[in-house]
Structure formats: structure tokens, C-alpha cells
Backbone:
């Protein structure tokens, strides 16, 4: 699995286009902080997860790289969770680099007075963004196991829209919709949870449950999926 | 041994969109045998190869490799696969690509460097090329590095999909040498190729696939060869005389191309006998060869 993680990091950070796009996001976030923003947390770096996770499996399927990998003694689940860990590792690195850049730039421009740009605050913000990203990456990974190209992004958008439809007229429908939303897209205040406030609460429990569901569904779909390649 | 029993595979579910890619295909590839898959585009060859590798699951029938399913990890640990088009990470340097597959194939990390360089040498890839990203490789270079990847750690089972496609004549010869080398060490090889002359040079047996069906099987080598033709070219003025000499040697004609005589050959001794008889009768032999003439077979099997 470690080979899969290494490959993912190499794929993303070895590509000039990806590195440039991530660099631009980091610069925008840094400037936001340097200009007095950032009190509400990271805003722009969240987009990094979409750059890093979109098409994580489907691109390997269409290029034929996956078939070459799976001709080796590698389990499909090993490949899949290697991809997921690769996404998390690359996103974690991105967040760490961005936080370090913010810390240095704000220190140089505003001095040590800015509380929201202290190391502790930035670590909390990065942790918040990382856990949100980990959740979105699991959904994208699930969609990527059966949708082509970067249609996993569309899948995520559709899931979000369906679960946020206007309130239903009928009570039982509204209740079902709310329950689905709470359990499939649970909202967790990570900033508080990471400070130890409600870390073992219902919201984090639902988050863990939903994350597990997405990853298990991804593994089930992917282990049964056929991988046609080439032309007869 | 690879055993395929009654395998059918269709794509699409309904009506006109449904394509029967494989229809009750049964065959066996014995240990150490090299089998060629021959057929027109769209015949089902790559689908069969994908089933043999476990990428696709047959709708009906079974496939076993040494008694196990194709996606069994112990089978995969002994498998090498070269796809028709190498679609791997374009930004990855050749060395990293081979090292990645070396490690996936179970190679020791400490030996990866030496293993990768040895693999590159075997396919004639320069060391300097290994430092370049795959995006800078020509088609021929991609085929070479793909072949190097497939041959890493000397697999027992080799599945090659158009291995010489896009390569120059030197590359074609190199692919042939590597296949013969793998064959000499006892590898079981399934080769899908349109380069019939090359198929004939390396394969022990060929099967023809058409519209998903296995239509014909010919053994090209050994005592049980079913398809061997001898061809001698002699001066046109002596053709009739030469034909009479061959008939006396009980080497019957098998459709003569202009200026030549063709006859069925059971073994190499038959050809030696033919040449000797002609030489003793003072008929100059300009050319003599034994061939399976797969191209002709391919034309015969077409629509």
C-alpha cells in the first residue's frame, strides 16, 4: 500500500500543472490572512481536495495504468485504500505547506500579534480542513470507482444538492430527508472538537459512520468492477 | 497450464447495443507453450486476454491458471503483462516506472536499482532514457519499457498484447528475441499480434478468433504440426520437371504460387529431401523455406 501512496504523491507533486494550481491556492489563502482575513478559518485551500482527489481511480482505469498495476500481486482494496491514503497524504502536505507559508508571511508583515495566525490556531485550522477534506475525498473516491473521468465531482455535487433539497411538504419525507442529510453529510465543528469539546459526540460518531460507509461502498463497487481495456 | 472452458462474454445489455465479444471459447495453453491469438480487429482477442488476466469476468464458463482463478495473487506474482498501449503516469521517469513495478512484483527494494537497469538493458533502453519522464518517450521506446516491465523478475506467464506495435525493425527483432528467451526458460506465453510473420516465428500454436468464436487452431511446431508448407523457387523453365520430381518423392503440390512449387511438409526432413532430390536432378533451387503461411490462413478465415 505504501507504494500506492508514494505513487499518488509523485503523480500530484510531480506534475507541474497540479503543483502550480495548488501553489496558487496557497498564495491566495496566504494573502487573505496577511491582509487581515482568516478569522473564519481556511477558505480557499478547501478547493485543494477537489484538485487532489478528483478522478483518482477513473483516470487510472481509462489510461490502462490500473490494469498494469492489477496484473501484479496487489489486491484491489489495497490499491483503493492506497489511493485514499495518497489523497490524504498529499492534502496533508499541502495544508502543512500552506500553514507554514501563512505563519511566515503574517509574522513578517504583521508581527506576532495576530492570534489567528499563531502556530496553534493554524494547526487547528489545518486539522479542520484536513478532516473535512478526508470526508469529501471518501465520497469522491466512491464515485470515482464507477464514474468516468472527473464525473466524481459531479456525483458529489448531485449528492449535496439532493440532500439539501427544499423542505418536503410531508412530515415523514422531511424527517427522512433530514435523517439522510445528518447521516450522509454530517456537519462537525472540528475546530471545537479538536479542542476536545464534543470529540466523542454524536456528530463525530455520525461522521465516522458516514466515512466508513463511503469507503466500504467504494471497496464493494471496486472489487466487483470490470476493467475493460484496449480494443479487440 | 491455462485452461479456458466455454467462456462467453458480452458487453451492453439490450438489443443492438449488446455485443457478444466472446462466444463459448475453449482452449488450453500447456506449460511452456507459446500461443498466438489471431483474428481481425474486433474479433474478441483483447477481451479474451482481459479475461485471462482477470480484468473481466466471463458471463459463462471458467478460466484457470494452474488450477487457480486468474486474479489469484499467487498467479499474479508469476505474471507479466504488456498492454497494447502503455498508458502510465506520463510525468514519471522511466526508472521510477520500472522500480514501481519491480516492487509491486515483489522485488526487494535493495535490488530495485540493479533490477531496473538489467531490465532496461535487455530491451535496449539507454540508461540516460531512464531519467526522462515517459511523456518524452517515442512509441517505440514506450513499447520497449513496457516489455521491460512485463519481463521484470522473469514471470512464468506472459501476456503480450501487440508487443511490437509501433516499433522499428530493430525493435521487432528485439521483441522476438525476448519472447524466445522467455520461451527458452519455460515461460507460458499468450501473444496477441497482427504481425503474423512474427507470430509464426515465436508461437508453437495459433488460434483464430472471429466474431468472438474460436474458429481454428493450428500447431506450428513439433511432431504434431498441422500447418507446414514447403516452398521452393526454381527456374520457370524447369517448373514442370521439378513438380514431377517432388511428386515422385510423394511431396504433393499445395497450390503453387507463380514461379514456385509449394507442398505439404510433415517435418524438416521432408524439405531436405525435396531439395536433395531437385539438386540430384540438376534443378537449381533459388529459394527454399518452410512456413505456416499464416497470412493465407488469415485470409481464408475472413468473411
Residues:
Amino acid at each position: 500500500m505504501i507504494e500506492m501512496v508514494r505513487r499518488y504523491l509523485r503523480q500530484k507533486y510531480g506534475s507541474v500543472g497540479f503543483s502550480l494550481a495548488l501553489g496558487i491556492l496557497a498564495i491566495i489563502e496566504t494573502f487573505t490572512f496577511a491582509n487581515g482575513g482568516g478569522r473564519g478559518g481556511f477558505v480557499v485551500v478547501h478547493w485543494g481536495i477537489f484538485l487532489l482527489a478528483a478522478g483518482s481511480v477513473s483516470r487510472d482505469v481509462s489510461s490502462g495504468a490500473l490494469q498494469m498495476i492489477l496484473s501484479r500481486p496487489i489486491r484491489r482494496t489495497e490499491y483503493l485504500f492506497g489511493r485514499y491514503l495518497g489523497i490524504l497524504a498529499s492534502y496533508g502536505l499541502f495544508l502543512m505547506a500552506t500553514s507554514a507559508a501563512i505563519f511566515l508571511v503574517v509574522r513578517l508583515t504583521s508581527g506576532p500579534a495576530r492570534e489567528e495566525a499563531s502556530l496553534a490556531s493554524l494547526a487547528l485550522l489545518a486539522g479542520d480542513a484536513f478532516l473535512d477534506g478526508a470526508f469529501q475525498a471518501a465520497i469522491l473516491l466512491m464515485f470515482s470507482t464507477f464514474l468516468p473521468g472527473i464525473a466524481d465531482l459531479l456525483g458529489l455535487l448531485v449528492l449535496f444538492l439532493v440532500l439539501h433539497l427544499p423542505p418536503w411538504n410531508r412530515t415523514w419525507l422531511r424527517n427522512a430527508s433530514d435523517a439522510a442529510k445528518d447521516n450522509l453529510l454530517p456537519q462537525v465543528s472540528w475546530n471545537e472538537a479538536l479542542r476536545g469539546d464534543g470529540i466523542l459526540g454524536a456528530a463525530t460518531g455520525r461522521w465516522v459512520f458516514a466515512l466508513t460507509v463511503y469507503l466500504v461502498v467504494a471497496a464493494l463497487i471496486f472489487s466487483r468492477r470490470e476493467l475493460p481495456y484496449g480494443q479487440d | 497450464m491455462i485452461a479456458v472452458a466455454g467462456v462467453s462474454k458480452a458487453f451492453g445489455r439490450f438489443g443492438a447495443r449488446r455485443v457478444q465479444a466472446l462466444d463459448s471459447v475453449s482452449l488450453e495453453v500447456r506449460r511452456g507453450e507459446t500461443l498466438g491469438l489471431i483474428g481481425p480487429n474486433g474479433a474478441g482477442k483483447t477481451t479474451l486476454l482481459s479475461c485471462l488476466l482477470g480484468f473481466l469476468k466471463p458471463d459463462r464458463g471458467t478460466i484457470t491458471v494452474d488450477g487457480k482463478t486468474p486474479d489469484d495473487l499467487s498467479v499474479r506474482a508469476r505474471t507479466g503483462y504488456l498492454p497494447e498501449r502503455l498508458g502510465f503516469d506520463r510525468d514519471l521517469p522511466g526508472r521510477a516506472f520500472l522500480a514501481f513495478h519491480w516492487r509491486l512484483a515483489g522485488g526487494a527494494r535493495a535490488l530495485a536499482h540493479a533490477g531496473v537497469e538489467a531490465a532496461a538493458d535487455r530491451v535496449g533502453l539507454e540508461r540516460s532514457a531512464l531519467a526522462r519522464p515517459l511523456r518524452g518517450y517515442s512509441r517505440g521506446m514506450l513499447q520497449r519499457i513496457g516489455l521491460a516491465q512485463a519481463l521484470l523478475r522473469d514471470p512464468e506467464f506472459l501476456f503480450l498484447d501487440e508487443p511490437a506495435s509501433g516499433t522499428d525493425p530493430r525493435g521487432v527483432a528485439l521483441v522476438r528475441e525476448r519472447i524466445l528467451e522467455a520461451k527458452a526458460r519455460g515461460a507460458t506465453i499468450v501473444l496477441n499480434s497482427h504481425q503474423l510473420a512474427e507470430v509464426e516465428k515465436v508461437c508453437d500454436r495459433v488460434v483464430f478468433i472471429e466474431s468472438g468464436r474460436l474458429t481454428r487452431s493450428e500447431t506450428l511446431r513439433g511432431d504434431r504440426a498441422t500447418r507446414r508448407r514447403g516452398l521452393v523457387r526454381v527456374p520457370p523453365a524447369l517448373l514442370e520437371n521439378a513438380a514431377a520430381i517432388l511428386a515422385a518423392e510423394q511431396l504433393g503440390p499445395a497450390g503453387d504460387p507463380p514461379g514456385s512449387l509449394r507442398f505439404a511438409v510433415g517435418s524438416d526432413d521432408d524439405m531436405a529431401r525435396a531439395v536433395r532430390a531437385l539438386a540430384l536432378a540438376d534443378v537449381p533451387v533459388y529459394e527454399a523455406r518452410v512456413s505456416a503461411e499464416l497470412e493465407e490462413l488469415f485470409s481464408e478465415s475472413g468473411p
About this structure: Chain A touches chain B through 27 residues (CB under 8 Å). The two ends of chain A are 32 Å apart (CA to CA). Residues 199 and 205 of chain A are 9 Å apart (CA to CA).
